[in-house]
Structure to design on (556 residues):
């Protein structure tokens, strides 16, 4: 039964063009991240080459700053794109997966059959997780191609491993937002309200929590670069203790560490991974519990 | 006679409700102690005003809702404790039916057949579409269907796994006269040829008199009347139609 629901879920996402839209956006984002990395690389190298020509003969030539940067730094924008756009798209995946059965009242037909609530939820989640994995796999391929084009060489085994680990982490992070999309449908019943609530959660996790727990550094929601200057305000000194619970913050810092972008705070990688995985697991348990307790006897709702 | 879960009690009635109550919250008690027995092979018409509790009763019998108290069984299986067994025996057509709009009729039916444990879902789908004379709808997406077409596929999904009891909640709502006639013929065929017991919530009294063998009247959560159509007509000789009888029974309660 779980496999039946999972395959139905994948078919639904395909038929409703959700899968296609997300793949196009994610692949486009990856290509864009690669292009921006490549473009800045080219520009700085060109400026560097011009500057070297202007140096008096015999003077020490400083190294090209890009030669000191890790290979994967070309894709550093990906961490931002995934936590912003990827998460938003995954809200839609989770929303769509539950909306028909809940808001359209099709759940009445499903649960008058032999399927159990947990098998149903497992199938829905499995289908969504497979869809997100497929999209990320396509993005991984484009990443590798972008690195090949930008660097002129295929990435080494270590870089491929880091890239794969980063995508695995991103998959876990995005599953969290799939579950947010599901849970808001179960709690609100109305499609429009569910989507609005999900976006509210996304805004909170992506922007509000990272800023509050990091002393309102204006760039913290976007950039994974840690501000070395501590805040002196008492409120933020208190809230900064909650930083380990900032899912978006932990995801971005873990990504920086995995991709070896060397801008993140050192250490704590296992804890950061645990935060992201634990967040997804806890939300999965909560969603499963809600599905089991949910009243599927009601018919279609408005909106 | 086997009594363990997984076996149908051969002597058990198709449907039995005993002292079933249901309340959604402190103030809203929708069912107030229903006792109802429906024998196998009956076509039961469940009548009552809007909000009388008919849909809640069907939701309980189809395992979608748990009663607040009392017991309900389908073919001897308790709707709360033997949910899987109950769902094996029932088919359900809800009011205001919606199906997966982006799937074709055949894909919808195959999905519901598989969820009902049918091994050859494709074969069962083709068979049920042929039985209901709507094979031409198989490859069309349900989202483009009219109400009548959707209702036919709705009935198909309810019987694709050959259930023994069919629950129909306001099946004629929104249908044109031709579709209502088609629905009536289908119900009679399912009952007479396949031996299905039919439990039908409806307001359409003209259809009740043509299709049902027994009627029950629910009034504010209480079953105030239940008898066969023939006996009912005998019992109220001065009333011109079933509608007059219904108004008399429901009004007196």
């Amino acid at each position: 039964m779980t496999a039946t629901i999972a395959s139905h879920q994948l078919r639904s996402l395909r038929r409703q063009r959700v899968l296609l839209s997300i793949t196009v956006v994610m692949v486009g984002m990856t290509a864009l991240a690669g292009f921006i990395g490549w473009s800045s690389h080219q520009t700085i190298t060109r400026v560097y080459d011009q500057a070297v020509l202007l140096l008096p003969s015999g003077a020490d030539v400083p190294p090209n700053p890009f030669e000191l940067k890790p290979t994967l730094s070309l894709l550093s924008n990906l961490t931002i794109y995934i936590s912003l756009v990827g998460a938003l798209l995954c809200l839609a995946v989770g929303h769509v997966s539950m909306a028909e059965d809940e808001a359209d009242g099709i759940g009445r037909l499903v649960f008058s059959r032999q399927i159990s609530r947990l098998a149903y939820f497992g199938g829905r989640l499995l289908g969504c997780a497979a869809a997100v994995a497929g999209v990320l796999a396509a993005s991984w391929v484009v990443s590798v191609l972008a690195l090949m084009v930008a660097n002129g060489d295929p990435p080494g085994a270590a870089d491929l491993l880091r890239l794969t680990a980063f995508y695995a982490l991103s998959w876990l992070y995005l599953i969290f937002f799939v579950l947010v999309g599901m849970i808001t449908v179960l709690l609100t019943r109305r499609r429009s309200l569910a989507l609005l609530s999900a976006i509210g959660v996304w805004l909170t996790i992506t922007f509000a929590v990272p800023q509050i727990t990091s002393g309102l550094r204006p760039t913290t929601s976007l950039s994974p670069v840690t501000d070395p200057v501590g805040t002196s305000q008492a409120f933020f000194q208190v809230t900064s203790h909650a930083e380990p619970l900032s899912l978006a913050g932990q995801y971005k810092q873990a990504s920086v560490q995995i991709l070896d972008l060397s801008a993140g705070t050192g250490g704590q990688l296992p804890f950061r991974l645990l935060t992201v995985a634990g967040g997804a697991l806890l939300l999965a348990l909560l969603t499963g519990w809600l599905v089991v307790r949910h009243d599927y006897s009601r018919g279609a709702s408005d909106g | 006679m086997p009594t363990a879960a997984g076996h149908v009690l051969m002597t058990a009635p198709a449907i039995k409700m005993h002292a079933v109550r249901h309340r959604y919250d402190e103030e809203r008690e929708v069912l107030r102690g229903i006792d109802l027995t429906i024998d196998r092979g009956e076509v039961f018409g469940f009548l009552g005003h809007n909000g009388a509790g008919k849909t809640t009763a069907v939701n309980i019998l189809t395992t979608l809702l748990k009663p607040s108290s009392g017991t309900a069984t389908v073919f001897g299986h308790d709707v709360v404790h033997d949910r899987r067994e109950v769902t094996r025996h029932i088919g359900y057509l809800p009011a205001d039916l919606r199906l997966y709009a982006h799937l074709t009729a055949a894909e919808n039916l195959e999905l519901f057949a598989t969820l009902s444990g049918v091994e050859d879902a494709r074969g069962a789908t083709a068979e049920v579409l042929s039985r209901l004379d709507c094979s031409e709808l198989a490859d069309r997406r349900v989202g483009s269907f009219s109400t009548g077409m959707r209702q036919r596929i709705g009935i198909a999904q309810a019987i694709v796994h050959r259930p023994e009891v069919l629950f129909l909640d306001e099946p004629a709502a929104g249908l044109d006269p031709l579709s209502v006639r088609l629905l009536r013929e289908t119900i009679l065929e399912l009952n007479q040829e396949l031996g299905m017991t039919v439990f039908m919530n409806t307001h359409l009294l003209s259809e009740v008199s043509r299709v049902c063998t027994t009627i029950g009247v629910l009034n504010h959560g209480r079953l105030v009347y239940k008898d066969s159509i023939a006996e009912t007509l005998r019992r109220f000789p001065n009333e011109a139609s079933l509608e007059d009888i219904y108004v008399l029974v429901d009004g007196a309660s």
Observations:
- Residues 18-54 of chain A form the longest helix (37 residues).
- DSSP finds ten helices and no strands in chain A.
- The interface with chain B takes residues 1, 4, 8, 11-12, 15-16, 100, 104-106, 108-116, 295-297, 299-300 of chain A (CB under 8 Å).
- Residues 38 and 252 of chain A are 21 Å apart (CA to CA).
